[in-house]
Amino acid sequence: MRKIVLLLMALITLCSVQAQDKKQLKKIKKKFNTHEQGSVFAKADRVAILGNNLRFKLAARQSEETSWKKDDYHNFAAYSILDGVNDQLLQEITDEYYDMLVSRFESMGIEVLSYEEITQAKSYKKMKDKGLKDNENVKKLWGVALVYNYSRNPYITWNGAAPFGPQQKLPKELDAVLFNSLVTVDFSHIGIKISSYEKSRYSTHRVVYTEAKSSIVPIINIDGFTYNTSGIGMLEDNTYIFCINQKGKQLLMKLDLNDSELESELIFASEIEKCEDCEPVFANSFFKFSEHGMGTIIVKADPELYKKAVLDALDKYLDEIFMVFNSQKK
After folding, report:
1. Which among 194, 196, 166 is positioned nearest to 180, based on CA atoms?
2. Which helix (H) or strand (E) holds 188?
3. HSE of 142 in the Cβ direction (CA atoms, 13 Å)?
């Protein structure tokens, strides 16, 4: 009798865990705006990692504005700059992230092809010629970033909507799932709070006072879309994964969050200071005359702590991504 009770309890616990996993999986798929054209990893036993690209933000911008429909329209912007990291450190992090990615695939029973095998495929050159991108990203909307791939291999992307092209042929030639990704690593949360009040001196004379305060929290987090004040998602700083299997089945995952909770709780900043004359070069633009600058914050990072915090955030990111991949193998 006792054995039967224990067995029933074990079954109830198992069902509860499975229900929780399904609920979490549904939440993750919604968060990553997942689009599947078949189970890419259902029967996969080989994967070719074209890019484990990491985009490290080095300077960031945040802006807020009052409604443009009002006559008291104002636009405020604040900036932050990361100090204390260098090319060698960022490449080191990227290479360790590649090892993490390989380990996750191997735990699924999937063999990871070497990059040399990928370059020997017939369609690789054409894909590189068509999809090679500059690893330096400068966007006035959100800042400056550098992109790194494993072992300094080129940063290649392709149009996920394209039904034909070398990205469709390459997985067939390699007899493997083609995996490409871009993960944007941010170093701070910048907040801007605008307040205004109206004061009338006379019944016909209206005066509106508007002020803004900015705050910054140094924190390593994985970025999704940046949304402008009109609520339009900007793909240019997104985090995404795009996979194609040998039969052309696709999996597209785009992190659709402005302020992602995929972040590290580890402290990496050794010092934070405000700099009056340190506004980044990318901040200069034709539209700047309408912007009220709120200064620039320098975030000085301890290199080793920065590395630990970034790898910690990436580990949390992979936990969620591979929950989706593993669900296809069942």
Report:
1. 166
2. strand 177-202
3. 25
Contact 209, 197 (CB under 8 A): yes
Dihedrals φ, ψ of 58, to 5°? Answer: -115, -20
Report how far residue 65's alpha carbon sits from residue 287's, in angstroms, rounded to the nearest whole number. Answer: 14
Contacts of residues 30-33 at CB distance under 8 Å and 24 or more positions apart, as own/partner, are 31/255, 31/256, 31/257, 31/320, 32/253, 32/254, 32/255, 32/256, 32/320, 32/321, 32/324, 33/253, 33/254, 33/255, 33/256
Torsion-angle region of residue 287: left (phi > 0), alpha (psi -120 to 50) or beta? alpha
Q: Dihedrals φ, ψ of 123, to 5°?
A: -85, -5
Q: pLDDT for 196-229, tens place per residue?
A: 666 665 556 666 666 656 678 899 999 886 555 4
Nearest to 239 by CA among 269, 263, 215, 266: 263
* Residue 70 phi, psi (nearest 5): -95, 160
Distance CA 138, CA 283 (A): 10
Q: Residue 330 and residue 169: Cα distance in Å, rounded?
A: 27
What is the pLDDT, as a whole number, of residue 153? 97
C-alpha–C-alpha distance, residues 281 and 198, integer Å: 35
Residue 292 has pLDDT above 80, yes or no: no
Q: Quote the pLDDT of residue 316.
A: 96
pLDDT in the model for residue 238: 80
Residue 233: pLDDT above 70?
A: no
If you average pLDDT over every residue of the chain, what do you get? 82
Sign of the CA dihedral with 91 first, then 85, 224, and 227 last: negative
Please, which residues have CB within 8 angstroms of residue 160's CB and are 6 or more apart in sequence?
Answer: 242, 250, 252
